[in-house]
Fold this sequence. Notes:
Elements: H1 2-13, H2 22-30, E1 35-38, H3 47-55, E2 60-63, H4 67-79, E3 84-87, H5 93-104, E4 110-113, H6 121-127, E5 134-137, H7 157-161, E6 169-174, H8 179-188, E7 196-198, E8 206-212, H9 216-226, E9 231-235, H10 239-251, E10 256-259, H11 265-276, E11 282-285, E12 298-303, H12 310-317, E13 327-333, H13 336-346, H14 354-369, H15 374-381, E14 402-404, H16 406-418, H17 425-432, H18 438-443, H19 459-471, E15 476-478, E16 484-486, H20 489-495, E17 502-504, H21 517-533, H22 537-540, H23 543-552, H24 557-561, H25 568-589
Parallel strand pairs: 1-6, 1-7, 2-4, 2-5, 3-4, 5-6, 8-13, 9-11, 9-12, 10-11, 12-13
Antiparallel strand pairs: 14-17, 15-16
Amino acid sequence: MLEEARKLLQSYFGYETFRTGQEQAITQVFEGHNSICVMPTGGGKSMCYQIPALVMEGTTIVISPLISLMKDQVDALLAAGIPAAYINSSLGFDEVRETLYDVQRGAVKLLYIAPERLDSEMFLNELQGVHVPLIAVDEAHCISQWGHDFRPSYRLISRMAGLFPNNPTVLALTATATPQVREDICRILDIEEQHTVMTGFERANLTFSVVQGQDRERFVKEYVKKNDKEAGIIYAATRKTVDSVYDMLIKKGVKAAKYHAGMPDAERKAGQEQFLNDEVNVMVATNAFGMGINKSNIRYVIHYQLPKNMESYYQEAGRAGRDGLPSECIVLYASQDVQTQRFLIDQAQDPSRIPGELVKLQAMVDYCHTENCLQQFIIHYFGDLQAEPCGHCGSCNDERESQDVTKDVQMVLSCVVRMGQKFGKMMTAQVLTGSRNKKILDFGFDKLSTYGILKHQSAKEVSNLIEFMISQELLAVEQGAYPTIYVPDGGRDVLLGKRKVMRKGAVVTKRISENDPLFEELRKIRKELADEGGVPPFVIFSDKTLQDMCARRPQTAEEFLEVNGVGANKLEKYGEAFLEVIRSFKETAK
């Protein structure tokens, strides 16, 4: 069976060998062991059930909570010549009936279903009599109440497995599960500990960084401009911020779309399609977007505001670089984001989950403040304490020079004390820069000795300095309806001259990849073929495959088949179109 699996990997997907962990997971499926497979996003989890589905008789059922991912996966399978289908709330009654008819007559190898379907006795009755060798549980952390996206419907998976007399094998898959969540998954799905496949949580092609105390809007404008040919996602915590960032980018002439729950369904869907089809380069969204996006050529993910926990962050950041090419994941941190997330957590429907969510939020705040390796911090969080520093994240590679800002910090601290430690960040910045704001004059703050002592800076620059001081615990925030700042012990030491404060220069935005003229030509033909076929461009070929074409410059069908990610089916469908571009480019380049 394993030998046949290797042949199918090459003929359908164009890969010579399995990735780490895939062969072990597939072998356990063939041996009939219920298993859990923990691989990072982009690690190739889907191959662990797609290949067995092709080898084994019958229809493999894949349970996934992500409607958009189902569509992407089915599109990609159909493009590779594999009969697949999905059933979820996006289909009408007649479409569901038609799909079930195809399943019942054995015409579908992989059927993707939403977990909510398990609540329907009628739906489960329709599946009786279908030969199901394997049930794949994608995003398996949803089964655990300790997971970051608990779905009660997932608890019904065991009941569904009992419907089939042949007792199908269960394969649970996740990218983000802490030890506690993994234990929960195994208990509920009857998986023995020795049938755990873990390939580690490291994403070696991703560069993680945290930017603190800088003008977020300016950073994003510069970053997007420098990487205008690359696809990226900008996540924000609130709908209002999504709208604001989107409007700012549109005004700058950037091809962008937005996505949040406050938009009409049709508008959301249209934006998502534009992004998938490379018609816009930037998606600005709340975390409602992207968990099911299979787009492989996303080169950067920027979190404009602090994410709510490490699990969400690693999944969202993991949208970048699914094709294995170098990509960036950046958090733009500001202290007020903590309050935003606390507010969102307090709105949670289940009050019993709030204390646990606040603990997770604190871990996210700690990540933003650590000076140690960021990738190592993430991996340790998920229980792998053996991880070494990555050597290429924002902390490991931080070569910015530090400047002594002790004097400016003392001025800010002195002003906060003189204002009675009862006011917010913006009011303090206005006093320091000499604003003639009516409120400041009413309070008599223009009479303070610290009034206007930083007038050579803008209020925004001083506000950023205050953000930096909060992140270094030189100032603290008193939470309430109107958060105020005060001087804690760390700040007093600076004020009394007992310690110096060094601040690193601003993070400079950079270009992710260099332009390659042939790569751009291949992108164009890929887009044309995708439009003709009504599928997203990455379904035709990934950026990694296009880069391999640039490196190899194949001239014949045999040489084209050697390109990473080219299988026999895709050679037949698209080979000549791409070969023609490569040959004509070669002629032009002479």
